[in-house]
Write a structure and sequence with these properties.
The protein is of the alpha+beta class. It is built from 14 helices and 4 strands. Strands 1-2-4-3 form a 4-stranded mixed sheet. Helix 9 crosses helix 14 and helix 11 runs parallel beside helix 13.
Length: 290
């Protein structure tokens, strides 16, 4: 943490030395040091192949499972064990999600190693494995439910897609609302922000119409934040989340900036927009699968 604070302090001093004319008139590439630009380009060149490999690996595993007859044999085995077709569909869908995650495990491990080598993650292998396992279990549950419900609707109505779209939109919105209480605590620890910085941040939020919004500190296992600040939840559950490392190193003015950025996203209904985008991706995937 002390090394990160020192690095942030050095960057802050560099930014403070720039004149307003430089900040407003020069491109960002001319203001950020060349080493960081080179590191960013290197990171992108390493991550893109891993990202594509993860997608192709999942597609290849599922294609082989289908074309080699494994899907049919597994379906028949489930039918022999369960009397209800709906009871067959849930484990079948969960199996597809498990196979997809298994196919992507090596590219995902590679992407994590890239982040660790580049200093973007300090998580140990067991932490990465735990998070990947939890994500796999959640994916299996979601996939099983979707397969079971969608195929049940397909059997009963030609308008199955309308009901499916409505259900996925509803689940996406409800999931966004429940995220701070159900999903987020599985991966990180959160505590209310305290001290003088918290008082200043709450006053700033109140002055911009968000007097009651909680401001939370995220304590990551690897202490490297993916985002300095973000919003979680929506409506009654919405809150501003600041990374522990940022709270430790930032000045009151910088904390206000991060809070203002998240308030602007709330004003623009960004959490709702992201919920709709997530739902649209699932809807397209379901339609193609059916």
């Amino acid at each position: 943490l002390s090394l990160l604070i020192a690095a942030l302090d050095a960057l802050n001093r560099h930014v403070d030395s720039l004149t307003p004319a430089q900040l407003l008139g020069q491109p960002i590439s001319a203001l950020v040091d060349s080493q960081r630009q080179a590191a960013g380009a290197r990171l992108l060149s390493l991550e893109l192949p891993g990202w594509f490999a993860a997608i192709l690996a999942q597609a290849a595993v599922l294609f082989y499972f289908w074309r080699a007859g494994g899907a049919a044999r597994w379906r028949d085995a489930l039918r022999g064990r369960f009397g209800s077709e709906n009871a067959v569909r849930f484990p079948f869908g969960a199996t597809l999600a498990l196979l997809a995650r298994a196919g992507a495990v090596i590219p995902s491990f590679y992407l994590w190693r890239v982040e660790r080598v580049m200093g973007l993650s300090h998580a140990l292998t067991r932490v990465w494995a735990y998070e990947y396992a939890i994500g796999t279990i959640l994916g299996m549950i979601v996939a099983g439910i979707i397969v079971m419900l969608v195929l049940w609707l397909v059997e009963r109505t030609h308008q199955w897609y309308l009901y499916t779209i409505g259900a996925i939109l509803a689940v996406s919105i409800v999931g966004t609302i429940l995220d701070p209480y159900v999903v987020a605590p599985l991966f990180e620890r959160f505590t209310p922000m305290s001290g003088s910085l918290a008082a200043g941040a709450r006053s700033f939020a109140a002055a911009h119409g968000y007097a009651g919004i909680p401001i939370i500190v995220e304590h990551r296992v690897d202490r490297i934040p993916e985002n300095a600040a973000n919003t979680q939840g929506m409506g009654p559950s919405q809150r501003v989340v600041l990374a522990e490392t940022i709270v430790a190193a930032a000045s009151p003015g910088e904390i206000d900036y991060y809070v203002a950025h998240e308030i602007a996203e709330l004003n623009e209904s960004v959490p709702l927009d992201l919920a709709f985008i997530d739902a649209a991706i699932v809807i397209v995937g379901v339609a193609l699968a059916v």
